[in-house]
Amino acid sequence: MTEGVPRYTAREAIDLVTSGFTELTGPVAPVGPGRTASRARECGPDGPLSWQGYDASRARAAARTGEEESVVCGTATVGGTATVLISFEFGFLGGSLGERTGDRLEAAYAYAREHRLPVVSLVATGGSRMQEGMRALVQLQRVARQSTLTREAGLPQIAVLRDPTTGGGWATLGAGADVVLALPGAQVGFAGSRVRPPEADPAAYTAEAQLAAGAVDAVVSPAELPELLGLWLHLLSHPSAEPVPPPPALADTGLPTTGWEAVGNARSSQRPRATAYLDAYLSRRAAISGDRCGGTDDGMLCGFGVLKDGGRTVAYAAQTGTATRPAGYRTAARLIRLADRLRIPVLTLVDTPGAANDAEAEGQGAGAAIADVFGAVAAAGTPVTTLLIGEGGSGGALALAAPDNTWATPDSYFSVIAPELAAAILKRPPEEVRATADQLRIRPQDLVNLGVVRGIVEPSKSPS
After folding, report:
1. Angle, CA of 97, 176 and 93, to the nearest 5°
2. Looking at residue 26, what is its pLDDT?
3. Per residue in 224-246, is it b (16+ CB within 10 Å) or e — as a string?
């Protein structure tokens, strides 16, 4: 146990997020094709491996915890949204997954799909149950299938990682969720504490380390968990078929007369950035973080929020004016695909001098990451709206732009390449950069005339 980190029982974890819980008490037989009764019932004494003392260990675990298995499944209302809750009991054989655990998980997921409910998993597990051998390990396949069926049904899945979350439970219910929250200090990792290399740094196997590595969306204190979990359930459970309108411009800037003036407006330190637009456009929002591949990018803000005008849910992916890194593009692609699956409209805010092009970015797969975003936008069935709020630097900006539904603010520009770089490629002297900017036709009004953007948004307040 991590020093100073509480280990909640299954029921205590449920009480953290809801005051009302109804346990599912129906049959626990598997519901998969060709399955009519649990294989666990076919076993003789001491389970499928006849592991000596296994039945006695189960009996002691039940007496100690008051639970019949390592998971408790039921329904509850969290923050106003009805949901299926799955909570692990670590005191029952280390929260391990056995065949009866798989029965319960399968039944809970089936109930969620039948009743169109989101699934919240409060995970605390040490992995698969050794006393059942491979019959236990294959439960991960069952869980993965149920998660996939639920994903295909368009229902959200949220995981809350408790201490500890390791092994197959982390690699299925935890890391496989749409949104992953974690309690502070929780052990999180595929390798449990007793099977890690002896020289391994324990700090690498924590919720905080997984957040830094892009595998967790947020580390949340127990006191803050009910409100945030309720917000997430609300945000992910309200689809909409209509596109969202572009936000109004926040700066009262006139249209530029030259291309170089457009560049100066977009590069001004006084220009409103993505955070200001999100604050003005959304009343509440919750962020996702990380690309699930080991990286994060503070220059790409992604998440879901509630529109101030109309109260609808919208997903957002917003560049903040920095060179976007591969992890930022992959996070945006993850956000767009999640929104598409849940039928939630998307708003993208474009503002970057271009994609990061240093050696590290190339080594992290910059080209593939940009291609991933192009593909996510192109394939999205949910409507995508784009507002160009600053610099639109080449393909690294265009990747986030919605074809036929991109708008621009007066203090923005979009260019095939930065004017300085275009002049350098054309072997022009520095004094010709301004003229090159004009030739590129990068002003907002030029973009309208070229058919690249639909229109220029008006300021939020009329000039006095």
Report:
1. 15
2. 57
3. ebbebbbbbbbbbbbebeebbeb
